[in-house]
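Recap from last week: sequence in, structure out.
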Amino acid sequence: MVTVDADGQHKAKDASVVAEYAYAHPDTLVLGERTFDEKKVPARSRMGNTITARAFRLVTGTEIHDTQTGLRAFHASLMPVLWKVEGSRYEYEMEELLACVDEHIPIKEIPIETVYEPGNPTSHFHVLRDSFLIYKNLFKFVFSSFSSFLIDYSLFSLFTLFFGTEYVLAANITARLISATANYEINRKYVFKDRGSHASGALKYACVASAVLVLNTLLLRFFISLNIAAWFAKIMAEVILFFFSWSMQKMFVFSKEKRAEIQRSAFIK
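Predicted structure tokens:
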């Protein structure tokens, strides 16, 4: 299966190359990677792709240099996963990448010729509208953690306000237990869309949450010992542990690797 943009940016020889690679690697999504040379690529396209690629790497941990390329190829065996991807236009292209990361489907970039007409008159990319469609799907990955942080921080502030800073550690632990419960349910149902054993997932999450709680408490005590205000120390600790918590949940608690391997093996011949 090969997709190409309709604005004349891709050549038949490049489509053939990515198709051949996809045929030889049926478990991989293949991307035609353009070279964003300042002399050939319009400023808005170059800047937009650079920002999106960095945001994608920051959020998912996967490095892709050309996230907006429309030249893509994949074996028909991946259709059970990719036909479930929602959206259209540039939104679909980003959703497709997120789905592959989520399902542990390898993504391979192959260099292709970069073709842009002067002034880029054939491009259908609308900066505001299509950028919104792209980024709203990226930031759904961090929505759950931010919601949990708001619950955690609000409760922490409330407890320290009423009981005083001498109970700051108890306030931190109590607030974290409540927010962690909410965070687990949001992640399980809406972020990672996990359909595995609820008991197993809850146990794994409890292990990760306990580790984060210990680290969070240690950092909090350390910052307070430096005479940093409790409210600011809490924010610092949360920011430091954000990516650790995200990585552990994605790889350990809500990992879809085993299910993805089973699904692919049923279709790859």
